[in-house]
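Example record for the data management plan.
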Amino acid sequence: MLSAKWIRDNLACLKESLEKRKTQVDLDDFLSLDQKRRGIIQKCDELKHKQNLYSKKIGALRQQKGDSQHLIEEVKDISSKIDKYELKRKSLEEKAKDFLLNLPNVLHSKVPAGSENIEERRWGQIPQFDFSLKDHQQIGESLQILDFKRAAKIAGRGFVVYKGLGARLERALINFMLDFHVSQGYTEVLPPFMTNSAAATGTGQLPKFREDLYKCERDDYYLVPTAEVPVTNLYREEILTEDALPLSYVAYTPCFRREAGAYGKKIQGIIRQHQFNKVELVKFTTPQTSYEELEKLTSEAEEVLKRLKLSYRVVRLCGEELGFSAAFGYDIEVWLPSQEEFLEISTCSNFEDYQARRASIKFRDRDNKSTHYVHTLNGSGLAIGRTVVAILENFQKKDGRVLIPEVLRPYMMGTDWIEKT
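Corresponding structural encoding:
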C-alpha cells in the first residue's frame, strides 16, 4: 500500500504508473481529502496544546485558591471541539484508507507501457504432429481420466473430477514440484486453506477483489485464491532480522476463485476452474536483493518445465497486464498444440514493499538496527491443472495414448503411458 506522504512527494511518478496501467484514479479528490485531514490534525494538536496549558493554569489557581471556573468552562469547550474534530478526522482517515487500499502498486521503470508484453526468451522445440490433434478435454474424456459431466452434477460448471491415472498424474506433479523446489533451498509449508480478512487485505486481495473470492457465510474466512495469501501472512506484523533474509517458501494448496466471465475455447476444460491445485513460491527479501531473487525464482519455475520437456517462453508483463499489487513481473507460458499458441502457466512477481506495508512486515538491518519494510515476491511453481493440460496435449500419440514425462514416472509407480484400460 502506498502512503499519503509518498503520493504527495511522487505525484508525477504515480500518474505515469497509472497511465501505464490504463487505470483512472481521482488523485485530486484524494489530495483534497488528505489536505483536509492534515488540517484537522493540526487544529486538534493546537487545541490539545491549549487544553494542556489551561489545565496547568487551573491546577496552579487551585493551589493558590483562586477562581478557575472560567478556565474550566474553557477547557470543556475545547474538549467538545476536539471531540468533533476527532470524529471528522476518523471519517476522513477511513475514506483515505479505502482509497489507498484500492490504489494499485507503482510500476517499476522497466515495465513496458501499452498492452503488449515483451518476449524475453524461449526454450525447447515446439512439437510437430503427423496426425489430427485432440485438445486436452477430448484426450482426458477419451482416456476416462477427466470427468466434467459428473463434476457438474456434483458442483456445477467450472469443476472436474480426476480419475485413475489422471488423479495420479495430478498428485505426481504436486509431489515432483514440491520435491524439486525443496531441493533448491525452499522450505515447504502446508498452510491453512482458509484465511481471515486481515490476511487477504495484507496481500491485496481485499478490498479490490472481494467479488472474486469465496467467503464463508457465517465467519470471517475466505477460501484461499492462491497460497501467496497464507504464506505471505506468515510474518504479518512481525520484524525479521536482515541476516534471516532471504526467506524462501514453497507451498501446495488448492485454489478457489470465482473466475467470472465467458468460457471460450482458450479457457475450456481445466484451463480455468473454480477450484484448482497450485504449487506456489514465496520469498521475503531485502530491497537491495529483491530483483536478483526474482530472477532466481523465475528460473526455478522455468526449470520445472525444462525437466518435464515442455516448450515455453518468458514474457515481461506490460502495465495493462501486470497484477494489482505487483511492481514488476514475468509470465511463463507453455506451448499448447491444440491452440497453436502459448498459455500462461506461472506469473512471477516482485511486489517490492507494497504488500509488506499493508501487512506490516519489516526487518531490522544489521548495521544501525533501524527497521525497513521487506520486499515480497511470489510465483507459481507451477499451476498443476495447466501443467496437466500441457502434458496431455504435447505428449499425445496417434494411437490415443499419452507418454508420461520421464521425470514423473517414479511418482507414477513406474507407469510410462496413460492409456484406456
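Summary line stored alongside the record: The domain at 4-101 is CATH 1.10.287.40 (Helix Hairpins).
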